[in-house]
Amino acid sequence: FAIAHSESRRAAAGPRTTAPCPVTAATARAHRPCASSKAATTTAAMAEYEDKALEASVFAKLSKLPPLVQPAECDELKALLAKAADGKAFIVQGGDCAERFMDCEAERLEAQLKVLVQMGAIVGQATGTPPVVIARIAGQYGKPRSKPTETVDGFGEIMSFKGDNINGYEPAERKWDPKRLLDGYFHSAATLNYLRSLRMSADLSSFKDIDVGFTASSAAHAQNVQIAAGVKKSGKTAEQAVFFTAHEAMQLDLEEALTRPVGEAHYNLSAHLVWIGDRTRQLLGGHVEYFRGLANPIGVKVGPSMKDDELADLVTVLNPHKEAGKLVIITRYGSGKIDEFLPKHIAAVKATGIPVVWQCDGVHGNTITANGGLKTRAFDDVMAECTKALAIHRAAGSVLAGIHLEVTGQQTVTECTGGCALVSEDDLKTNYETWCDPRLNAKQALEAALTMARELGP
Ligand code: PEP
Ligand code: MN
């Protein structure tokens, strides 16, 4: 394990030890030396539990429950990501910011899969290759928060909502409860079971009926109609409905309980891909330490606070064997900042010789507070960041392999402004459902895919 940059940073943090790191026993079992426990104290964002006996019983159970995905599926995704990094496929990753247990119902799940599969079909139509569809689903229940507490009228200063895996949204339910992790596992299992069963369903043919009537007022409408017609004519529906699952692996004790040895390797078998958030990607932190022991394809969010040499170190630690399709760099700067940061970050990674898969998260750098206090995003800002990412990669001789967006399959949600769906700031309160970040509604999501398709197309 010889890495010049990161070795010096690790050395600065104190002596290394090969003893199992408290948060990365799986990593240690793979005989990869753990960072010093001093370094691991930087582990950010995780919930902790008071009732140690209850906590122990929850983790004992979680570590015995069956895997939700197969290692071979994770390997298959890795191979597809390698193709995308080569410009031979395009990734559409999307879903809720925070999935909710209460939304685990057939109609909503079907709508969510449908919008993602349709987005994939739209970009696939432009590139002429099958899309790689990755859903933020079946486990996207844990959120890092910028502040641990928040002020709620009538309740004063209470713990922030950290996702259904950790606490409840209702102010009275904000205490961290380890039993929720089991609820999370069973909701993930039910979700994944239903989504997989849909691939066998006759109704899947309706996934090909993409209605672009709502873009009639747009100058791009004729082109959109053509793309939609192309999707309808194209090959087998079941093949188009191939999807993978992903979530932010924020709560490491949970993720580790769902990590299993497979031969010499360790896979997190709760999802095909897991990613590290922009708040938890510290080079010496527990998240990076855990992730570097995984065989899954992994992602890491990169925002404006990332330094060029820090990114070079990070990709070296996370993809030491230079595997193609292994590491997705999910950039999220904001449409006004991408020009300043992405070119330097591309150059820094290129200099390491480490292959990465570049994905643009067009949403997280573009969150603003609207008049009235609701968090929102403007459709045009989201698309500006995605189309700029494509142009910047092309100019740098690099490849934008995909996009990453927060979207819902629900048609009538009003959380993001703009697009042909014409959601105004005043409309936001009409149907604002999210408990965390604002999502593009189903029409805005399709319009986002159409916009990318027009840019990607021949
Ligand atoms: C998210 O993807 O919901 C998220 C919290 O993103 P980031 O880590 O980029 O802020
Ligand atoms: Mn989010």
UniProtKB/TrEMBL annotation:
- Bound cofactor: record note: Binds 1 divalent cation per subunit. The enzyme is active with manganese, cobalt or cadmium ions.
- Names of required cofactors: Mn(2+); Co(2+); Cd(2+)
Which keywords are on file for this protein?
A: Amino-acid biosynthesis, Aromatic amino acid biosynthesis, Cadmium, Cobalt, Manganese, Transferase
Coiled coil ranges:
none
Taxonomically, which superkingdom?
Answer: Eukaryota
GO molecular function terms attached to this record? 3-deoxy-7-phosphoheptulonate synthase activity
Q: Which GO terms describe its biological process?
A: amino acid biosynthetic process; aromatic amino acid family biosynthetic process; chorismate biosynthetic process
Binding, phosphoenolpyruvate: R136, K301, R332
Residues where Mn(2+) binds = C97, H364, E406, D437
Name the pathway: Metabolic intermediate biosynthesis; chorismate biosynthesis; chorismate from D-erythrose 4-phosphate and phosphoenolpyruvate: step 1/7
Q: Do the record's keywords include Amino-acid biosynthesis?
A: yes
- Catalytic reaction equation(s): D-erythrose 4-phosphate + phosphoenolpyruvate + H2O = 7-phospho-2-dehydro-3-deoxy-D-arabino-heptonate + phosphate
Name the protein family.
Belongs to the class-II DAHP synthase family.
Q: What is this protein called?
A: Phospho-2-dehydro-3-deoxyheptonate aldolase
UniProt organism field: Diacronema lutheri
